[in-house]
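Appendix B. Raw example, untouched.
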Amino acid sequence: MQHSRVRSVSLKKDVPTAFNLEASNKTAETTSRPSSVEVVDKCRDDGNSRNINTKRSESSADKNYKKNGMPTDFDDFTGHNKHFSPNAKIDNFSERDEKQNSNKNTFKSQTNEKRPKLFSFQKISPSDKKALFNGQKESRIDEHAFLKSKPVSQGSSSIQSTVEIGGARLKTKSNLQLQNYAKGPCQRKQSETADITPAVIEMAFLKDLMYKESSIIVDELLNNRQFLDYYIDMATKDENAIDLFLQVLSKAFETHDLKIILQLFEYLKTKGLFDKIIDCLLHVIIQIKTKETAGTYIQRILENILIIQIAHLTRNPSSYRTFRKLQAVICQVIEELANIGSCNDEVYAKYERLSEYMRAIEKDRKQTFKSEEKREPPDDFRHYPTSPTIDEITSVTKPFLRPVKVTGSYENLHDYLDVHFRLLREDFVGPLRDGITGLIKIMSAYKGKATTSERLKELDMKIYENVRVLSPVVTQQGLCYKMKLQMTPNLRNIEWKFSKRLIYGSMVCLTDKDFTEFFLATVVEREDKDIRRGYFVVHFETQNIDMKKLHRKMFIMAETSGYFEAYRHVLSSLKTCKDGDLPFEKYIVNCKESIGYPAYLNQNHKYDLRPLVDQDVKLKAKRRLIKNKVLAVSNDIEFSLQSYPAGEVHLTRLRNWPNKELLRMDGSQYRAVQSALTRELAIIQGPPGTGKTYIGLQIVKTLLHNKSVWTETGQSIKPMLIVCYTNHALDQFLEGILKFYKGDILRVGGRSNSADLEEYNLKEYRQIKFKKNSSLATLQFNKRVSRRNMDAQSRCVQNLAKRIQLFQSEIVNEDTLSKEIGDRLFKSLKADFKGNVKQANFSYIVKWLGVEYMKKECVKELRKARNVRKVKHVRVEDEIARTLQERMLDFDADTNFSSIEGLIVRKIRNDDIAFYVEESKGKTRRRKNEPSKEQELDKLFNKTFKTTLMAKITDEDVMSQEEADTIQNVWRLNHKTKWRLYRLWIKKKCTALYEKIEEEKANFEATSESYRDALQQVDKAIMQKAVVIGMTTSGAARYQSVLREIGPKIIVVEEAAEVLEAHIITTLSNKCEHLILIGDHKQLRPNPTVYELVVKYNFDISLFERMVKNGIEFNCLELQHRMRPEISSIMRHIYPDLKDHEHVRSYPNVKGVSTNLFLVNHSHMEICSNEIKSYSNPKEAEYAVALCRYLLLQGYKKDEITILTTYSGQLMYFRNLMSEEEFDGVHVTVVDNYQGEENQIVILSLVRSNKNAKIGFLKTENRICVALSRAKVGLFIIANFDHLSSHSSLWERITVDMKNKNHFGEGLVLYCQNHPNDDPIVAIKAEDFQKAPEGGCFKKCDTRLKCGHKCVLYCHVIDKEHNEIKCKKPCTKILCDLGHKCPDKCFIECSPCQVLVTKIIPECGHTQLVPCATKPEDYCCQETCSKFLECSHMCKEKCGEEHTTECHEKVQFIWPCGHSYEIKCLETKTKACPQPCGLQLKCKHTCSGTCASCFNGRMHQQCRHGCSVTHPCGHKSSALCQHNPLCSEPCENRCSHKKCRKKCGEVCTPCMLPCSWKCIHKRCTRRCGEICNRNACNFPCGKNLKCNHKCIGLCGEPCPSICRHCNYIKFKAMTFGKKQKQNAHYVLLEQCGHLIEYQAMDTMVKKQTKSKEIRCPKCTTIIKHCLRYGNIIKTFLSTIESSKKIAIGNLHLRYRLSGSITDIPEESESDSRIYAEIKQGTISEDVARTKYTSHFYKLFCKKELGKRLDSLTGVLITERQLLTIEKQWKICINVSNLIQRINDTEHDLRDSEKGNNFVSFLHKLITIVVQPRSVLTDQENEDIDREIRRGKTYLKFLKIDMSAIPMSVAAKIRENFIAIETVLLGSTLYTDELDSNVNKSIGCLSAEIEMYNQ
């Protein structure tokens, strides 16, 4: 091979490279070194190139490329192949330059060529490798740049050498090790390679492929991936393998099948083949430098690599980025080969061609990128909907986008708005579209395969399978829906509290598994306790969804985390913005650099700047937003004499301003204030610590004090608007304003945590009652009206929604489900039950489902579970909390739908629920704030059992109706089948409820929207009265339409560099005349959702930054007041002009640490969390926590230390390491959340450390800036700085700077404050901090304590005086005369001696063991008490305790009724007889009451048995016995014009429209609701169907849609009658859809006239609408309507009843006086009940029955209910009069025990009767009548006077008297027979007494 050309090779500028590398192999014996390589320029990893020069002449293309140079960025070029047009013609490099022999022996000779080993088993680390790529800029690297040896001593192999890369120390090696480093495995001694044995591999597979077609080779490789993986793995281990493998690959890449070659390329890239080749080539460079090889054998490897690259780039130019680093390394290899004269001409030619090709691609990419900016949009962005359409999210076509112009102006406003609208819309539509299209692709390709779930994880968005709609929920956003996730193991393991999944505002898309339907929704609620079980709430964006069809249907759900609410409002505002609407267009759009004065400011205006001098001055203004609170105006403020030079300043004459010292500012602040007050667009950059918020407040103070300048007299106030990115920043800024301004400040939106701002919140102003007749009062009235309308609609919807929700989580009683169960199974459920009904509220369905058994099983499981005490972790401020804080908006304070939710739930549970799990009660804390063990167990049981029950109810295994129809006895089903059947009933019930919701939904949404509009009008009116309005960017987005109407004249934007440009411009209106932007674009930038929009379209460039980069004049603050000089020196790498204020130099040093700033370097690897897409570094976290603990031991307060990290994954790791008990108060958060904050000491964990050459956003200067600028006194950074500095020039500069200043190392040097001269501790690992266990050192303290013992702690810093330290040694004091010692620790105060000694108790004489210090008489004797109680049972207490007051002994007790039960002794006086009544009532049902509740049969409880009621309309419903409610089903009556919207039980309103029954032959001339005055027309219909066949209907009747010819099968199934008759015509029955032959139907109708109802002869459905038989149907319906009118209570009866109850007749003045005194309470209730019984109960009944009548107002009720209330009133009046008359009699019997008992029973009777009820049953009426007769007879009996009877006959008469008394006052049933006998006896007795009296 000729090498004449090669020897002249030198470095050339055109060829891209990655590094310039020279290595030395310096040993003790070696003295000569290879000559150094001339380095023209150094190539960096970001794409800067270095070129190889040759002596041959350069082509024109070379000159062109040399002129243009290489770009500095390498963006992905996918999709732009069609624009590629390289300058030079590219040959077909897939052909071999040298033909290979087909002879295998030739091949063997090639592979067996003798050559040195190329590859070392010791791989170069990623950090070392990267150091090769990134050298010092503008510096030369000599031949030792990679291995620089610095011998410590001469001679032996143990001489140590320091390996450095770019000045960074990597590791220490001996010279012998350096020699072995460059050796191949065969050149090393066995001892050197003891742990590495080269593998001998079989080459047959590869050799066989060498002689096959290229397409076959690719197929074989892809189909035998185990071999492919093996050879990729061997790439750095066996040179023969890689040589042969590359030959095979180079031939494979000759194939023309693009699809399969792309698959192979992607697989090779994924498996890291090209990275391994880079490693191999780096070792080749070392071997060439150390003269281990002449490079002959490497030529073929290079040639094959180049063939692969060229072949693939010609097909896919976008892959150039993959080959960029590889190409750079090849350049270096060729360079080294050129130096030793071994470079092959053919190899070099291929290399040059490849370089030309890559340059052409890059040039074309730049041209294409520029042309993209100039492309015209295909359509008008204003025509796009705000929400994404289904077509968009399922399309694979990318939208038209153009980048933000970082520099330069836009063509016009429309062009500017178009760019931002499309980018902003793509930011939330893009992830959704990519996720859905990816989902469809995966589900279609892998449908039914086990790998589907794994493939779904590859998508960038979150995908959830088996999601379903559970129940509707009424929220502040309107009608929403509760969703249920299928909780897979992965979802259960998610830490939802810190997960960004399904947070408020995220958009989700639901689709079925066939992708036929798509529904967009927004997450509105995600409680932690609910989402852990899979529940969350969404609001559907799609309108007109039939939710009953979606109920329990399975969906696949895709989620995008973008906040849709903010996007929606901003996009809408951009669409409505037109020419002239955007202020400052000349700057924002046209980028004009010269800025003018604000429009309101002229050159003659003077400003009073005295508030800037007198900082303590409080500005006061008249308040317009608070009633009767007017403060003095600002003219009354007293200023100091010193401030008078600043009293009248011509603002525009800057030279006449007071000096900066008078205004208390430094130079940069002074210039910033001047700029802000005199320019209509002011931009102020505030580096960290320079006080940009302070300057912002000074500007606002000046503007407020001089408000008259920008608010003209007579005009409405145009407020000043303050906009901040975060709630925290907004609170801080407004609090700052509050300190100097007492006026109308308004805080809008967000969630304010400031107590000072509470009264200034918009929600507080909404509650103020403004002056009557004012515009605000009118708007508030309108709001209240809208609210009442909304409430009226919401109660109905909420009731239905809550029923669905509860029915799917609790057990519904059988009566509620009776319709769904059906008569047959309902009867089986009750009749086939074999057990006993023990309780009054017994539920068959609970017993049937085995709920009690499930409870027992749950208890067993809980007992098996072990109690594990959870460690409470420190609170961390994660990104999720911040995101939610910014997204949540304020709602109206009285918009609280949950206020009535409790009432609804209680009512539903009382009426419909048979069993539910009680909610856990509020925690009652014991000592140490710990809940009791019983409470914890109850809570755990409730939680577990509720989850179990819900899982049972919501299970997807639902029985079909066909299977349910085959069941005969429900009690014979197994447990699983019972639940399947129950779920069917629930499904049917919920479906029916959904239908009712659909009917009410439109009205509810309309009233809700009306209310929101009214609320916004109130908000706007309040804002118009404010002087200062504060909003977050999210709040401003929501209120952007209001802001445009209000038109703030001055807008101040804090954190402006963090806000997307579109968000700022939408807050501007054409009335804005002054815009002040405050921020720092070198700190945090806007954070779009789609990263691609940042990389390709500059979407993270804020308006602030764009203005700065376009040369708009801005002011940068220079003097920082936060960081000590050592820390601020780091910031000068970002802000070179930053200066320190004097006071930061006086900060104290950090205690216990040798330096105030330190960079702790390590090499521990990071780990990645796939769930939250974040990183953590456990070793870093452990070190940071150990350092924090150490600093706390130095005496620092917890709130003086902050731990910062750059990743959420690390934040979670910190949380798990830090217990609340030890670290509560330490601020732990991520860097992004700490913007604008500061602390004394900051510990920063940077996390990133990997072998993939990635540092993420740590290469972004903005993030670095925030992270490094938060500390005031001490900053300690823990990171792999070797890794960071090798991938970031900023980190490299910082690292070098810190090394030079000795602030860098592997461990932090600690010193003991007590022993500062001792050797320090170097904390390299977290465990090293344990060498100072108490914060000092490892010495013992040994200080003598007050108690005389030595301190046993290690050297400690805290409490050196030992005032708080507790001695833990045993106490040595003697406690008593008996010599007993104190058993406690020394620090515990000695307590009285508790040693037990024998003593005699004087009171009882028992001998007891008593504590030594306790006197015998004070001791409670523990012997069992031997006394008997009054009940004759033994006392159960101890001898020294009080006797038992409540005896719990079981006794057999007999009640007066004769029943006997075993009860507790104490219950004998209070417990009522529990014997079930069991009597058959008049309704033939068994009484469900007890002996006591039914008063021993005298007054039975109302029958609770459920009965099926058939209403006149034909509907059936379940109701309590003898309750005949109105039908509550939706009315089915309809006509051709409309359907009746009322309930079926209400009277329908007749349709008054003209009758629609007409044809060409006949016509009805009456109204629709009247009987028609025409007959049926029997002519056939003359119309044609779509198929052109004749209609089979009749003239004037609705046309059937099916054809007897085209749809014969369907026709046959749907018709009834003469099907065989070809000319037969049919009547369409619209209710069932069947077609009946009209002659047959006419005949049937005539036969059915007796029943007055028409039924379909095919399905028996009642026909309620048919034009042909309309008169018959109307006649039938009129009878039903008559029945309804009779059943419904008439108004006359209601008014009459209301009047009789309200107007109690007063017979005399004394009655009026008594009524008044009872009402006023002058007569007590007890006295009134006994003495003025009639008066008392009339008032009582008036109150109770009046409530009952009021509750029925506006409700449809029956006449029977009204009559029942009337009867209740009459009964109560009669009984109360009876009691009064009994009390008025003077008879000894009246005051007897029996007499009092009877009167007491009558009192109870009134309270029973007056209870709310729909009916008094027949049994109740009978019982009440009996007792009234008994009372009247008793009154008659009391009138018998026995005082004049002679003693001789008195005994016999008294015997009869007592017999009558026993019957009347007894507790037995008072029958008609008894009443007759008693009255006869009384008559006889009266006659006999009268005879004796005569």
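End of appendix B.
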